[in-house]
């Protein structure tokens, strides 16, 4: 079989995401991807990446889009530029790899889906944390049924920082909703396993220097009755487990690379109990000893997915990409609804 040519990438934005993450992630995938051009408005960044990759660099995205060697436009610019840069790339028929947040609101997200349907290129949304090992392992445990029927989930990302960069400024697309939000809301929607019935939310500014929210709570209730409680904070001095899952037969928490499990031993049948509505005795109900199993296990899912690999398979072999545009739009719909009417909504 003839060797397939690597996908030629045009990297747009050579900062924290483009330079610091994307370049490193594909460094060992030279048979699949090659950065053939790069674009940044800052000359020092263009010089830095040209020295690393020996590829042509451009100050204007229009020049990069005109480069015939570019097949895939990797949009890693600041959040407000994601939408216009993706639009420009799709209109030229290029494939687009779009960093989160997909857009600034759901209207823009739906517009991109419409444009992608008319383009020769495919639009891929980088919800890469969908395949974090801890998230994948938690889903496997839920699916196993060992926790019983899962009824409540709490997802936390806590820290405390007097952050002072552009991601704290509303005008620049800052705030935790557009920073950690796309990742954790995507987790929440996947774990809800149901259409959203209701959303409750609260946004605050605690420690960051800008005018955007740095603390948020979102509670999603599914039509199936399941509740997902999302808390993302740059103002929480003491953190909580990143995952807490409650089921009818057990629970789990995750911190770091360890999963704490407590569940009823499925090998032991619980004796029948009879409701007693008589006069209360010395105890709250009839005492019993339940067959609890307590375990600490390493985060180690049976399998996971690398999104770069999946994108290559989609471009070269037309295989289905594991993140759909509708799923990404769902995330932006929640973000838009949560921001609407608050002081953090961009006017």
Set down the secondary structure blueprint.
Layout (H helix, E strand, L loop, with lengths): L6 E6 L5 H8 L7 E7 L3 H11 L3 E2 L2 H5 L6 E4 L3 H13 L3 E4 L7 H13 L4 E3 L7 H12 L5 E9 L22 H12 L3 E9 L10 E8 L4 E7 L9 E5 L2 E6 L2 E7 L27 E7 L8 H11 L7 H15 L8
Parallel strand pairs: 1-2, 1-4, 2-3, 4-5, 5-6, 7-10
Antiparallel strand pairs: 7-11, 8-9, 9-10, 11-12, 12-13, 13-14
Helix pairs in contact: 4-5, 5-9, 7-9
Order of helices and strands: EHEHEHEHEHEHEHEEEEEEEHH
CATH architecture of the largest domain: 2-Layer Sandwich
**What is the terminal-to-terminal distance?**
55 Å
CATH topology of the largest domain: Dihydrodipicolinate Reductase, domain 2
Proportion in helices: 25-40%
Total domains = 2
CATH superfamily of the largest domain: Dihydrodipicolinate Reductase, domain 2
Let me know the largest β-sheet.
Answer: 8 strands, mixed
CATH class category label of the largest domain = Alpha Beta
Number of helices: 9
Report Rg: 23 Å
The mean pLDDT is 96
Low-pLDDT windows of residues: none
Number of strands: 14
Strands in their spatial order, largest beta sheet = 8-9-10-7-11-12-13-14
Protein architecture, described:
The chain has 9 helices and 14 strands. With 347 residues, it is α/β, with parallel strands linked by helices. It folds into 2 domains: 7-127 and 306-323, NAD(P)-binding Rossmann-like Domain (Rossmann fold, 3-Layer(aba) Sandwich); 133-273 and 293-303, Dihydrodipicolinate Reductase, domain 2, CATH 3.30.360. The strands form 2 sheets. The protein has an 8-stranded mixed β-sheet with strand order 8-9-10-7-11-12-13-14, covered by helices on one side. Strand 12 and strand 13 form a beta hairpin. It starts with 6 loop residues before the first strand and ends in an 8-residue tail after the last helix.
């Amino acid at each position: 079989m003839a060797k397939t040519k690597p996908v030629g990438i045009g990297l747009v934005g050579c900062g924290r995401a483009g330079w610091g993450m994307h370049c490193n992630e594909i460094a060992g995938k030279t048979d699949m991807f090659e950065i053939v051009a790069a674009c940044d408005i800052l000359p020092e960044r263009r010089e830095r990446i040209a020295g690393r990759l020996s590829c042509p660099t451009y100050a204007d995205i229009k020049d990069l889009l005109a480069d015939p060697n570019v097949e895939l436009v990797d949009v890693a610019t600041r959040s407000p530029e994601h939408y216009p840069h993706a639009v420009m790339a799709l209109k030229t028929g290029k494939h687009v790899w779009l960093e989160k947040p997909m857009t600034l609101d759901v209207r823009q997200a739906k517009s991109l889906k419409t444009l992608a349907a008319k383009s020769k290129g495919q639009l891929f949304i980088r919800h890469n944390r969908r395949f974090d090992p801890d998230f994948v392992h938690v889903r496997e445990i839920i699916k196993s049924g060992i926790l019983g029927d899962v009824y409540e989930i709490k997802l936390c990302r806590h820290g405390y920082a007097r952050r002072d960069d552009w991601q704290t400024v509303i005008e620049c697309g800052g705030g935790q909703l557009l920073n950690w939000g796309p990742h954790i809301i995507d987790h929440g929607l996947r774990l809800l396993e149901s259409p959203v019935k209701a959303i409750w939310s609260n946004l605050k500014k605690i420690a960051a220097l800008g005018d955007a929210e740095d603390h948020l709570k979102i509670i999603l209730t599914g039509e199936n009755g399941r509740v997902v409680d999302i808390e993302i904070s740059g103002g929480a001095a003491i953190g909580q487990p990143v995952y807490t899952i409650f089921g009818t037969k057990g629970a789990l928490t995750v911190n770091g690379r360890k999963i704490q499990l407590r569940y009823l031993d499925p090998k032991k049948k619980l004796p029948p109990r009879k409701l007693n509505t008589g006069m209360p005795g010395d105890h709250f109900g009839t005492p019993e000893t339940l067959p609890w199993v307590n375990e600490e296990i390493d985060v180690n899912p049976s399998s996971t997915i690398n999104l770069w690999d999946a994108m290559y398979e989609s471009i070269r072999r037309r295989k289905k990409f594991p993140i759909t545009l509708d799923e990404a739009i769902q995330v932006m719909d929640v973000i838009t609804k949560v921001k609407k009417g608050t002081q953090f909504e961009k006017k």
